[in-house]
Design goal:
Chain lengths: 201, 55
């Protein structure tokens, strides 16, 4: 890292963990963002696929757009899901790549990992594996992935360039990054960028 | 930033009103925040070991 960061990365990570721990364990609560099946419908996910999932696979979904909107995954592809949360996008990916493919979800929040792992077992998805790690340092070997997906996660990293460098590392040459995230059309004032509460709220 | 990190063929999808009707709508409106799908590619390598695509 060779540049100044507006907030302390560890402080921001702990704030993000706290927020998404609650999304994992109490998905019925009200958050500043939409969640669950209503959000998946709002963002245009395939209804039949989402309807086939049990509630626990969808209820903690908190994405910001649809990473499969611009490209459907192909059978056999190897996929890394950066910030996989409770696993919703990983399960969508698993349904698209099939059993000849593989999906690795990476998340830093224990409660999300526990939930996604248990749901994968419930769904019998042997080609999906959830691992603990940071977006800036993923437990995935160089060039393993054909595709990297992510949804509403990169904006929560204080060092986005480090995340993109890490994604570049795990992708094979010619591999595809397809992700969803938020972007602002108006500049955020420096004092707001230094307010860690605004990063997650 | 994607191109600085070595990605090429960057495409951005249409905007989604991600926070409309949610608690975060006011902050989203203040900074014109929307959700987008993005796609980009890591350049492939040719027989000479060079990357295809601009960096």
């Amino acid at each position: 890292m060779d540049h100044d960061l507006p907030v302390d990365p560890d402080t921001l990570r702990e704030q993000v963990r706290t927020k998404y721990r609650e999304v994992a364990t109490h998905p019925d609560r009200s958050f500043h963002f939409h969640t669950g099946r209503p959000l998946a419908a709002r963002l245009g996910y395939d209804t039949a696929t989402v309807d086939s999932f049990p509630d626990r696979a969808v209820e903690s979904y908190a994405g910001v757009a649809n990473p499969f909107e611009l490209r459907r995954l192909e059978p056999g592809e190897r996929v890394v899901d950066v910030g996989s949360g409770a696993g919703f996008d990983s399960f969508i990916a698993a349904s698209q790549v099939g059993v000849s493919g593989a999906v690795v979800g990476v998340d830093m929040t224990d409660e999300m990992l526990a939930k996604s792992t248990a749901t994968a077992v419930q769904l019998g998805l042997g080609h999906v594996d959830f691992r603990k790690g940071l977006a800036e340092a993923m437990p995935v070997e160089d060039g393993w992935a054909d595709v990297v997906i992510s949804n509403g996660v990169i904006n929560l990293s204080v060092d986005k360039r480090a995340v993109f460098d890490e994604i570049h590392r795990v992708l094979r040459p010619g591999g595809v990054l397809q992700f969803a995230d938020i972007a602002n059309g108006r500049p955020v004032p420096p004092e707001a960028l230094r307010d860690v509460d605004l990063w997650t709220g | 930033m994607l191109e600085e990190a070595g990605f090429v063929d960057v495409t951005i999808g249409p905007a989604f009103d991600t926070f409309g009707g949610a608690g975060g709508e006011n902050n989203a409106r203040a900074f014109d925040v929307y959700g987008y799908a993005f796609i980009a590619r890591k350049p492939s390598i040719n027989k000479e070991g060079n990357h295809h695509g601009k960096r």
